[in-house]
Amino acid sequence: MATPPQQGKGPGIWRRVIFPAIFVVALFAVLFARQGSNEISFGGNTMGTTYSVKIIGDGDKAAAEEAVAKALESVNARMSTYQDDSELMKFNASKQTSVEVSDELQLVVKSALDISRQTDGAFDITIGPVVNAYGFGPKGQKKVPTDEELRSLLEKVGYTKLSIEDGKLSKTSPDLFVDLSAIAKG
Q: Which bin fits 4, alpha (ψ -120 to 50), beta or left (φ > 0)?
């Protein structure tokens, strides 16, 4: 738990983070309480999973559904491993080692690579071949790969084999397979 700032140590976490956070939460609570008790809810399937949306307040359900559908379609078109024609799957299938990619894909890959560096590779978006071998990817049956298969697949994995610079996503090997399922859906 954070402690109040000490004399001469600057504003501290209480003034910079905790008080503003409490204010924002209280503000949202007041605003939503005034909206009434109408609830719009809908959901569906996307990206190999399901989603659910609830909106408290007055609004147009059809417009909300359309906006969410467009946002999900945009993410799928760029980052899905379940769509062969997505931007990510085109990169994965490409034998080119450097491909220009959208701002959205750049943002997610940069975030993923930052997390990979911070976790010393515990989080690694190049784990796609292993995910697919176990049958958790878009194709394949669930099975446990042999130790030899796993060793071979792990040679193709490694976030340091992937980089992004000047709008281009680059891989050191044409066989590198990026899977953003652990981050893009968020």
A: beta
**Residue 63: Cβ-neighbour burial (10 angstroms; 0-12, 13-18, 19+):** exposed
79-88 residues labelled b (16+ CB within 10 A) or e (exposed): bbbebeebbb
Summarize pLDDT for 66-83 with one digit per residue, the tens.
Answer: 999 999 999 999 999 988
**Residues 41, 52: contact at Cβ < 8 Å?**
yes
CA-to-CA separations, 110 to 7, 61, 184, in angstroms, rounded: 39, 34, 12
**Is residue 45 within a helix (H) or strand (E), and if so which, with residue range?**
strand 39-46
Query: What's the rounded Cα separation, in Å, for the pair 167 and 98?
Result: 10
42 contacts 65 by C-beta, under 8 angstroms: yes
- Read out DSSP for 10-44? -SHHIIIIIHHHHHHHHHHHHHHHHT-S-EEEEEE
Structure tokens given for 157: 């994995």
Q: What are phi and psi of 51, to 5 degrees?
A: -135, 155
Q: Could you read off the pLDDT of 120-179 as tens digits, one per residue?
A: 999 999 999 999 899 888 776 788 999 999 999 999 999 999 999 999 999 998 889 999
Measured distance CA(80)–CA(181) in Å, rounded: 8
Where do we find the tokens 């940069």?
Answer: 110
